[in-house]
Amino acid sequence: MPKTALMFGSIGAIMETSDIQRRAYNQALKEAGLQWEWDRGVYAELLNQSGGQERLALLVAATGAGLSTAQIEAIHARKTQIACAELVSQRRSLRPGVGALIQLARSRQMKVAFVTTTYQPNIDAIFEAAGDALAPANFDYIASRSNVVHGKPHPEAYRTALAHLQVAPADVLAIEDTAVSVMSAKRAGLLVVATPGDITAGQDFWQADLVVKSLLAEDESLDAQVVTLLG
Fold it and tell me: Is residue 230 predicted with pLDDT exceeding 80?
């Protein structure tokens, strides 16, 4: 049965941003006087927890750093400011196949959603960094942290998107880039393709229905397995 909706999850499923976020965290932490320096391996582990403020809160609890909620929010806000500024200044490309998959979905009159639980400034920066390659108008629904009480792996974000688009879980194909986000989509009953990014490639994607390095095949066409899952 052909799918009637396509949902991209985390911003990393659309654009490779993880290392920008990692370096932005390091700068924000340094400015706050914290001696935390996250290399790629450490950040890969931290991405098993969805939500930047939630990651910081867990580390504060584990290390006894003694930061208040207000301080955590301030560090996260500064991180977001740094990362978004770099994204916009660099004008980054979409991950391979993202644009083509959206075009295919549109040609089939499918509904397309961006089901992220990140904060609005990050979403705005993605669109600005993508330039003409991607726009809010490409999506029938765009979620953000303001739409949900629970971050991923809770399925709330996907359930909210399903209700908004009025589609059933069985009619949706989701694209995600982290194991915790794949779990969110699976808990909502969706079929999920995992496209791990540079930093998340070592995560365990056992819940995904398909794991591919890229949405494109070697000949630059859309991966046949992904197209098959669309129906």
Answer: yes
